[in-house]
Amino acid sequence: MLSGLYVTVLSVTIETHILLWERTIQMIFPRMTWSKLIAVLPTVLMSVLNTLGWMFCFISLIGVVDFSVPKSAAATVLHTADAANAIVVQSRRTIRDQQRQSWQVIAFKSVRPDMQDLPLTLRVVGFPGGPALAHPEPGQLIDLQHRVWPLPDRSAQVAVDPALSFSLGQYDLAAVLGHLPTAQRLQLQLPTADAANPIVLPIPPALIHEWQTVAAVAASDLVNQCDLFPMEARQNPKFPLWTGCRLAEP
């Protein structure tokens, strides 16, 4: 909308000055004399400078105002330490379902140099008051062509208060991640007690790329990459020493 407004203003301004130039030329050429040329020259120069000033302002606005289509929020991959001397690499987003209920969608894995990387896992956590997820039913990702990628339920791996477990689901994402399209929006469907009304969450392409980034991280990628970790975490004496980022105790 802003770009259309600026184009309209520039167009009207240029048309106005063209009309002024035409009138000036009509005054000059029918009976051109040096005296008349000298008389109208300041007007012509001011008109030209005025138009150039408008064009300069317009070009400056193009440089300042972003006319592009708004992008999703910048992707963020987080790195935290756990109690097993490992680093948990995770992607975390808040996404609303078809009923405008908010869910935390977290893709994560643990890495440690002396063990094989654990597979990428998808955890979905509902906020209080949201619908209950059904277990152990699988979730599924669906593309625009109605292709389906099932996500086996791994919620039994999560040790939580049984009273809270109905608003939490954990699913195996590793097996399907390499097969997902990355140029279109997907739907994440999660089963509920009402089988006819699953939770439906939109998954943008940028989030698929973010999941792939998390899946590709190896322990060697984290060694001496201290900017990835908060200062207070590095001050913890239990922070993984293999990263090369633990701060010496004072």
Total count of helical runs of at least 4 residues: 5
Q: How much is the average pLDDT?
A: 78
Proportion of helical residues: 25-40%
Described by strand count, sense and barrel closure, the largest sheet is: 5 strands, antiparallel
Low-confidence stretches are 1-14, 54-75
Tally of separate domains:
2
Given helix and strand content, the structural type is alpha+beta
Strand proportion: 15-25%
Shape: globular
Features:
single chain; alpha+beta; 5-stranded antiparallel β-sheet; 9 strands; 22% strand; disordered N terminus
Can you summarize this structure?
The chain is 31% helix and 22% strand.
Explain what this protein looks like in three dimensions:
The protein has 250 residues and is α+β, with helices and mostly antiparallel strands. The chain folds into two domains: 2-64; 77-239, no CATH class. 31% of the residues lie in helices and 22% in strands. It has helices at residues 2-28, 34-64, 174-177, 205-216, 231-234, and strands spanning 77-81, 87-96, 102-111, 121-126, 139-142, 148-151, 168-172, 186-190, 199-203. The strands form two sheets. Strands 1-2-3-4-7 form a five-stranded antiparallel sheet. The chain has a four-stranded antiparallel sheet with strand order 6-5-8-9. A hairpin with an 8-residue loop joins strand 8 (186-190) and strand 9 (199-203). Helix 1 runs antiparallel to helix 2. It is globular and about 90 Å long. Residues 1-14 and 54-75 have low confidence and may be disordered.
